[in-house]
Amino acid sequence: MDKTLHYESYVQILKEELIPAMGCTEPIAVALAAAKAREAMGAMPEKTRLEVSGNIIKNVKAVTVPNTGGLKGLEAATAAGIVAGREDLDLEVLSKVTPEQIQEMKAYLDSHEIKVVPYLGDRVFYINVEVSGGGHTASCEIMDYHTNVTRIQVDDKVLYQAQGSAGTAKKTDRSVLNVKEILAFADTVDIADVEEVIRRQIAYNTAISKAGLEEKWGAQVGKHLLETYGDSLPVRAAAAAAAGSDARMSGCELPVVIVSGSGNQGMTTSLPVIEYAKAMGVSEEKMIRALVAADLITIHQKTSIGTLSAFCGAVSAGTGAACGIAYLKGASYEAIAQTITNALGTCSGMVCDGAKPSCAAKIAAAVQAGLLGYDMYVNGGDGFCDGEGIVKEDVEKTIASVGRMAREGMRRTDEVLLDIMVGE
């Protein structure tokens, strides 16, 4: 592969995307904004106003915030950030909480007003935490993705303002991604350029999956898969990813490496590939290359969908995982392209109704759909064809059609889902 093409962009995309996070990333982003607002004011707030978009409300409602003693919800995430957040640790903002601070959070919730109001603008991802006390106010605004702080202000003084129009998120251009070039990049990338982020992904995500299988977390979907269907390799692959979500959605304090802003997607993309790589006895280099392929194919799918939507991101990640497994097996571009088409043609209607324990079951279904998509091709060259629903004549157009469906077609679905979840 010609390194002057998009090589550096692909490396940078992986570095931007594969970052560690403790806890579901939406409540953690709320905690981060709260911690930064408190730090800017320089005192413990008396009152807090939290303005958030609908997708933030949806993804925080039912998930346990780590290091809070089992608390859930927007108020809990805000209080955790105010009382114990380390504003310098980004998505590991709650990783240094002490037992004493957990008790302080609960007392703070009982004695201080935290008012949640819906954001009425057109951004899908929006958080603004405004704190007040002692005659002063401070605020922190985050837009578009979880660590994209766009403004910090104290009273009338702006301490920080992001560059660009309305704080538009600045990241490496994802439009350069395409399946054929991703596979070429995975084949030829200098391992030294990606090994730090990929090895961290392997270590972190494997650890939380192990916790999900060995301990009692959530609905224990990973355990139930193994107990019900046995320990064949495809079942173990789905169970590994589901178990990580079992733990993470229910407050496990182990960090994960995320993909496309999501820990669930990070685990779904990587853990099945790791499970297959170990079972096949491939070299560490081969596993790293397969994970590079899986991660970038997942990111490519999510680029046109957006960070948050009514479309369940596990579908993209399960598809990416199946492509990584196919890569381990020496699959051609044609086989991987058809795997993507088959998987997306199977379960692209799965909706995101927030972060919660049932995400683990959706993850298992997405991994199984991805593996089915690959098996269909391998065991007869079968696949879904142009004109069959959302499927188009080539894989890039199919990915684009799914992105359009999720981004444009499911806007109203998102509104109805939120109304169902929080309405009377």
The largest β sheet comes out as: 6 strands, mixed
The helix count comes to: 16
| Helix-strand string | HEHEHHHEEEEEHHHHEHHHHHHH
How many domains is the backbone divided into?
Answer: 2
- How many strand elements? 8
Mean pLDDT: 93
Q: How helical, in percent, are the residues?
A: 55-70%
Beginning-to-end CA distance, first to last residue: 56 Å
- Give the DSSP E fraction (strand runs of 2 or more residues): 5-15%
Structural class: alpha+beta
- Uncertain residue segments: none
What best-fitting shape do the alpha-carbon axes yield? globular
Strand order of the largest sheet: 3-2-4-5-6-7
- From the alpha-carbon coordinates, what is the Rg to the nearest angstrom? 21 Å
Describe the structure.
The model has no long low-confidence stretch (mean pLDDT 93). This protein has helices spanning 7-17, 25-41, 54-60, 74-84, 99-111, 179-188, 191-214, 221-229, 233-249, 263-280, 284-303, 313-328, 333-347, 359-378, 395-409, 411-422; strands at 20-22, 47-52, 113-118, 126-133, 136-143, 149-154, 157-161, 255-257. Helix content is 55%, strand content 11%. The strands form 2 sheets. It has a 6-stranded mixed sheet with strand order 3-2-4-5-6-7. The chain has 16 helices and 8 strands. The protein has 2 domains: 20-167, D-3-phosphoglycerate dehydrogenase, domain 3 (60s Ribosomal Protein L30, Chain: A, 2-Layer Sandwich), CATH 3.30.1330.90; 173-422, no CATH class. It has 424 residues and is of the alpha+beta class. It is globular and about 70 Å long.
